[in-house]
Amino acid sequence: MKVNKAAIYEAADALSNWGRWGAEDQIGTLNHVAAEDIVAAAGLIRKGKVFALGLPLDQKLQSGLFGGRWNPIHTMLATGTDAVAGTQDETVRLRYADDAINLPLQCSTQWDALAHIFLDDKMYNGFDATLVDSNGAKKNGIEHTRNKMVGRGVLLDVARFKGQDALPDGYAITNADLDATAAAQGVEIRKGDFVIVRTGQQEACIKAGDWGTYAGGDAPGLAFETAYWIHQHDLAAICTDTWGCEVRPNETTEANQPWHWVVIPKIGITMGEIFFLKELAEDCAADKVYEFFFCAPPMHIPGGCGSPINPQAIK
Amino acid sequence: MKVNKAAIYEAADALSNWGRWGAEDQIGTLNHVAAEDIVAAAGLIRKGKVFALGLPLDQKLQSGLFGGRWNPIHTMLATGTDAVAGTQDETVRLRYADDAINLPLQCSTQWDALAHIFLDDKMYNGFDATLVDSNGAKKNGIEHTRNKMVGRGVLLDVARFKGQDALPDGYAITNADLDATAAAQGVEIRKGDFVIVRTGQQEACIKAGDWGTYAGGDAPGLAFETAYWIHQHDLAAICTDTWGCEVRPNETTEANQPWHWVVIPKIGITMGEIFFLKELAEDCAADKVYEFFFCAPPMHIPGGCGSPINPQAIK
Amino acid sequence: MKVNKAAIYEAADALSNWGRWGAEDQIGTLNHVAAEDIVAAAGLIRKGKVFALGLPLDQKLQSGLFGGRWNPIHTMLATGTDAVAGTQDETVRLRYADDAINLPLQCSTQWDALAHIFLDDKMYNGFDATLVDSNGAKKNGIEHTRNKMVGRGVLLDVARFKGQDALPDGYAITNADLDATAAAQGVEIRKGDFVIVRTGQQEACIKAGDWGTYAGGDAPGLAFETAYWIHQHDLAAICTDTWGCEVRPNETTEANQPWHWVVIPKIGITMGEIFFLKELAEDCAADKVYEFFFCAPPMHIPGGCGSPINPQAIK
Amino acid sequence: MKVNKAAIYEAADALSNWGRWGAEDQIGTLNHVAAEDIVAAAGLIRKGKVFALGLPLDQKLQSGLFGGRWNPIHTMLATGTDAVAGTQDETVRLRYADDAINLPLQCSTQWDALAHIFLDDKMYNGFDATLVDSNGAKKNGIEHTRNKMVGRGVLLDVARFKGQDALPDGYAITNADLDATAAAQGVEIRKGDFVIVRTGQQEACIKAGDWGTYAGGDAPGLAFETAYWIHQHDLAAICTDTWGCEVRPNETTEANQPWHWVVIPKIGITMGEIFFLKELAEDCAADKVYEFFFCAPPMHIPGGCGSPINPQAIK
Fold first, then answer.
1. In Å, how far are A10, A221, B94 from A6, measured between CA atoms?
2. Which of A271, B74, D162, D186 has its CA 20 to 30 A from that of C141?
3. Alpha-carbon dihedral B154, B160, B162, B163, rounded to 10 degrees
4. Helical H segments across chain A, by residue range
């Protein structure tokens, strides 16, 4: 489809979930997950094997291209070297180490909150964008999802389906690609699913030992039209192994991240990015089971516009 | 039992798990969780109800009593007010909000890593304490647990069992208390369990709107003898709703946090603290089911001596 | 004088320096300092005695009353205990300590930049307030003053003149007080001066070992009418030993910090706060010389709305 | 001279100032500055022209080569866009912007404290290196210099003297170079001077718009033998426009930064690095006056191992 500003606003109208779950709703498509879906998803735990999808936070993927984000800063407040030197014995009288971390909420594996993206002057469900000020998000903050990131997870390993280690930068994953991948994998997409799309791009960076412009540069990713696919399938959330889910360069020069303009503010879908999928994907390829129990709790940050996460896929 | 330095070293000898899972083991009692335990725990998901046990990170519980820890600092890197003022339209060409957080890893709901506490010059499994320096923990860091915090959770609601809103400061929960609570609740403690003990202290602070000296002052908590109980039951992890799990004032003045001296460095148990238990405890009291699927992934922080978490209890 | 919103806008009109130094000016009253004033001020260096007016940054004066400011966080990145434990010998091959600090720019002794306060939708010299967004101040940032904080300093020790250790909270220092203090001290106020007013409040906090509500609570300070006095005397800057220069409770309930509404956005005066004056004031009382060379460079923070400083008074 | 470990220890013995100013001294060669030197230096203020030698803190010179230092992080706590959106009107009732900075103390223009470098297990004046632990420096911290960075400054523009825009990486500035530069400039080096050496390397980076490996890579700089020159001239402090003062690659492979091993721990000289010298150097070249009043107060950080600064050279 032709992507431009008109297409953005057309999709925004067509796919809007504003009001669908009430005027005060702040979790959007996470409403698609019913209690029985969680119970059913528990049945996918058959091997007792757990995959951690959080990238190590010492990976230096932020290159400064976008928004002044930095790589996580892990600093020590007390150390074993202090302990052994005896500097704690008179004061704390407990030999210990302690530490802190300082990180942008979206600098590595992460959820975007619904407060993260605006369309014109509004965010999801019609709340004013100005409700997100220097004190945080008064509406649509990540805290509303604190017990909502649980359900059925499905991996769509598009790269493997296409027979590639990694899809090339600029490759736009179409609705047909998603359908074909699901079909080839023998997995059905259902209402309330947490769908995770693998492009292989991240693994290529790790293998090369060079993040390059992973954070904000060109990348394979979802085509603009997938906004319709997401809406049609009533997904709970959509996740990828890339920085920003959607293809870059974008399919239009009239807007930056055109898919974002629609899916977060209008569909109200929580988006997961920078998922580490290597181990999970290898296991799925081996046992041909692409569905699993998914549990990816955000940090409980009131007013947060995102959250670092270490999602768990349990088979 | 009489608690003093001699008792600490006696327990350290009696309860040591050094070498039990090999000379290179870095996860300690999390080894107790077998794959089949995870599958069995999945069977506890019967209602599809999820409880978030992470305290909101805007709660100001750090009062500076211990170790220079501070309350989480949540700052904005981009806002909806910027967006509406139009300051992003020419530059980013995407209207968005973005934010960051800076927090001690153990300032709120958290896992202690095995690198957190030393006995003399050593940490769990005999590694030198000096392997934890200003660059982080080269051994026993939290990253080794990134996919290990999954299994059967059991709530021991000692406060409710005792008929109290909150146990008083200084109350030492004994092995007999733990056994009696489990018996009254009709729940069995099994190898590989994540056991969560509720004192009610945290809820009292929240109710009072005053954290006082919650972080490092007097508190109800586990008696020193529970180190034996933990070891005997082959727990995976032990968690409470208090700042430091064990009773304060401590049962001896010869050491600060005597129970810590043993359970982390010698038993090698990962400890959870500052769990928010109100909603889970009310549900357990109502349906009389005190066991659940437990999933509490740490952040993937290489070399971390702890991790903020938002544990999920799923029934 | 009667202070209310009308008085604020009346003063704003009467005292405006917008355009006085050109449409692009971003330093306001610092323009009053001429090169010859700096040369003349050098002549005040007669004893070779230097006073550091920066409060130690480990003083915990921020109590959270205002704006989410925190106390400075000083963390170590490398330590002597690491060095002695030998952990640097193979890697860095240099034994060293290193550290970092994280602090609000106005959490202790500080300059306010002209970008700090707005009147309605504007800041000093008529620039739009929206030019200060999450990326910092595009106009009136502290960087423009990086070599401008040099000149003649004058201490007006109002507390000592009044025979008090500290003026009481709520005491409004009038124009008459300032004139009488200067007269009693035998010092003349001149165009381009950096005038420092001592209330004694800070020393009372230090003596008590309790900062209480120093940061944002009640305090002695400048009366609203001193805006006229400042303008009339063509001061370069005005400084105090209090958190916010002006008296609190404010002289009106119609606005918070009414004097600020005028002096920064309209007069364009850079304001110094939380100056540590004890040693300087004692020396001035002893030698009866209340003028000195003043050098208080801000950090060179492009877009900064303030800066921590350690001002030097040299006699 | 031949540089190796033996030469380091020989210089350490020959140049030691331990005990010279008493067993408790913590400021080292800053003791060379007498009150009369400050008075005399005031006489160098002849034009009323002030040069700010602090590099803008938005320059991204840290590339991660050394010690996990990061570039300064400047974040906003309140903005003009918030103000104009009206989000402060009901709460703070003052329209304002506010901000914070998080930076390694030595990430840009800076003083090294005497606690920064150790020789074996000791720091300056024989204090144990373990007195610098995760809580900061108990001895030799930067706070002791808070009113000591005032005196006569002298620029030695070696690059200009050599007729070069910038000395090449690896060029070791010798004692003869320093003497010849001083002679050519017609300036005498005196006891208690703050000597600033210009290599031009920093300006080359700024001109190229690329910091490359400025922070920790190859650079022109002081030869090891200058340790003797510094000691002989009784300097107060030594500063350069480079990252680490001394030449890189170092003159030996037996130690990293061999000159540092001696000058900080044994001579006890405070070192200034990353000075921005372009404007000052051009003025000195123009008026042929290479001496000036120098005032470079550190932040008042108790226990700090360094401090960011914005030094002022006043002519």
1. 6, 21, 16
2. B74
3. -170
4. 5-15, 35-42, 80-85, 158-161, 175-185, 201-208, 226-232, 258-262, 278-287
Residue pLDDT, tens place only, B301-313: 999 999 999 999 9
Q: Is the pLDDT of residue B66 over 90?
A: no
Q: What spatial distance separates the first Cα and last Cα of chain B, rounded to whole Å?
A: 37
Alpha helix locations (H) across B129-257? 158-161, 175-185, 201-208, 226-232
Q: Cis peptide leading into D265, omega within 30 of 0?
A: no
Phi, psi of C309 (to 5 degrees): -140, 160
The alpha-carbon gap from B40 to the nearest alpha carbon of chain A, in Å, equals 9
Closest CA to B93 of D96, A252, C6: A252
Give CA–CA dist D262/D227, Å, rounded. Answer: 7
Amino acid at C284: C
CB B238 within 8 A of CB B269: yes
Q: Tell me: the pLDDT tens digits for D223-279?
A: 999 999 999 999 999 999 999 999 999 999 999 999 999 999 999 999 999 999 999
**What letter represents residue A16's amino acid?**
S
B89 contacts in D (CB within 8 Å)?
none
Picking from C275, C233, C264, C227, the residue whose alpha carbon sits closest to that of residue C247 is C227
Which of C129, B86, C138, C134 has its CA nearest to residue D80?
Answer: C129
Interface membership of B216 toward A (CB under 8 Å): no
Rounded distance, CA B116 to CA C162, Å?
55
CB-based contact (8 Å) between B262 and chain A? Answer: no
Asked whether the beta carbons of D174 and D216 are under 8 A apart, the reply is no
Q: Which DSSP helix (H) or strand (E) runs through B11?
A: helix B5-15
pTM of the model: 0.97
Task: Tell the residue number behind the tokens 């735990």, with chain if given.
Answer: A45
* Residues β-bridged to residue B196: B155, B239
Sign, CA torsion A88/A90/A91/A95: positive
Instruction: For residues C110 and C108, give the distance between their C-alpha atoms in angstroms, rounded to a whole number.
Output: 6
Using CB atoms, which residue from B68, B79, B102 is nearest to D81?
B79
DSSP H or E stretch at residue B84: helix B80-85
Cβ–Cβ contact B117 with A under 8 A = yes
Whether A201 has its CB under 8 Å from any CB of chain B: the answer is no
Residues of chain C neighbouring D130 (CB-CB closer than 8 A): 80-81, 84
Residue D93 CA to residue C258 CA, distance in Å, equals 10
| pLDDT digits (tens), chain A, 315 positions | 899 999 999 999 999 999 999 999 999 999 999 999 999 999 999 999 999 999 999 999 998 778 789 999 999 999 999 999 999 999 999 999 999 999 999 999 999 999 999 999 999 999 999 999 999 999 999 999 999 999 999 999 999 999 999 999 999 999 999 999 999 999 999 999 999 999 999 999 999 999 999 999 999 999 999 999 999 999 999 999 999 999 999 999 999 999 999 999 999 999 999 999 999 999 999 999 999 999 999 999 999 999 999 999 999
Q: For residue C263, how many C-alpha atoms fall within 13 Å in the half-sphere facing its CB?
A: 30
Calculate the CA B144 to chain-centre distance: 16
Question: Measured between alpha carbons, how far apart are the two ends of chain C, in Å?
Answer: 37
Q: Are A233 and A83 in contact (CB under 8 A)?
A: no
- DSSP designation for D62: -
Minimal-distance CA residue of chain A relative to D71: A70
